[in-house]
Amino acid sequence: MEKKYYVYILETVDKTLYCGFTDDVEKRFEAHKNGEGAKYTRSHKPLKIVYTRQFDTKSDAMKEEYRIKKLSRLDKLKLINNT
Length: 83
Fold this sequence. Notes:
The protein has helices at about 25-35, 40-45, 60-70, 75-80; strands at about 5-10, 15-20, 45-55. By secondary structure, it is of the alpha+beta class. It has a single domain (about 5-70), classed as GIY-YIG endonuclease. A hairpin with a 4-residue loop joins β1 and β2 (about 15-20). The radius of gyration is 12 Å and the shape is globular.
């Protein structure tokens, strides 16, 4: 069984959006909730996962994460709402 990679977007309690990539979305979300995921989510507590997309390679997931992080908030919301 081949490993899959995911890009995800979290909504935080203060309504900001955080994007990342992982090979296990639920495990990563728990790490974020426990203050172990990323510096940003230590001060902006994650509320829920609002977007995920699966990739076959780590490289493809990282490229998509980079692309999403450059989007405006409005464009990120459009991406989330189109899924």
